[in-house]
Please model this.
Amino acid sequence: MKLINTLFCIVSTICFISTVYATTTLLDSPRRIVSMGDLHGDLKNTKKILRLSGLIDENDHWSGGDTIYVQTGDVLDRGTDTIALYKLIQQLRKEAPEHGGLVIPLLGNHEIMNLAGDWRYVTKEETATFGGYNNRVRAFQKDGFLGEYLMQLNMTTKVDGTVFCHGGIHPNFARLGLDTINDYTHHDIEAYMASGGHADPHKIFGDKGPTWYRGYALADEPNICEFADKALTYMKAERMVMGHTVQRDGEIRTRCNGKIILVDIGISWVYGGYVGALEVVGDELTAIYENGRVSLTPPKNQPKAFSGVHLEL
Ligand SMILES: *[C@@H]1O[C@H](CO)[C@@H](O)[C@H](O)[C@H]1NC(C)=O
Model:
């Protein structure tokens, strides 16, 4: 009897412990986030990266489970696969939630430019995929099949402690909070489009706005890190992920001890066709490349950047 009791006790304790363990890991385990930068009209490489990151299967359907996939804008221009890329992203955006996942496409400066009729980077070949110029004009109008879709996208999003946006969020915008930035975007975009890119009351589409700003990518460290700290404090975030500024060596770059992460690696063949994505799981940062995974997790307990120099950016 005693032996059976002891056995029962051991078994139930193990069961209890493993149940508690399973529950806490389930509750505590952070979501997997995958992000990639500017796609610029290259469907082939985009699919390659989605497959490499486990987000699509061999039939191009969502296989990412509960992963959150954030695309930081500039899907179009330079290359030719505008329609096919938006179709793929829209399809994945429908499929992912059926598996507990989520696809978050954000606006880039090239989306905004096309909506406002600035077609500097549109090629003849790409226009032909719409069936000509007039069809393309219609597609980007507010009731066109791309205009309607793009106008409801957000400028920025925060997942756990990570903020995503196309260019970078200057402290002057970060101070407003992410919801206000998105509200201004949705509020101002129609007037901006109608005026051919002139009416921009909150300067949200301007050169220091979230789609164009390049300070975090180009300004010197450590000075720029003070700006990053300021912006991240306003947004109550740990790090900011952005595209827009091409890393010509094809590698995802971190700055300011992992608080700034640059994911535009020139995915499109126009820029060399580099293949790679960023994975964020909790505080673990990993670059996923064709030839393997590279940890980008910064060392812990780094001192705060302080230079005493104040930049006017
Ligand atoms: C934009 O952000 C809001 C607030 O986070 C969210 O509810 C909405 O679904 C987002 N829209 C898109 C198109 O992702």
Notes: DSSP finds eleven helices and eleven strands in the chain. Residues 32-295 form a domain with the Purple Acid Phosphatase; chain A, domain 2 fold (CATH 3.60.21.10). Residues 116 and 193 are 4 Å apart (CA to CA).
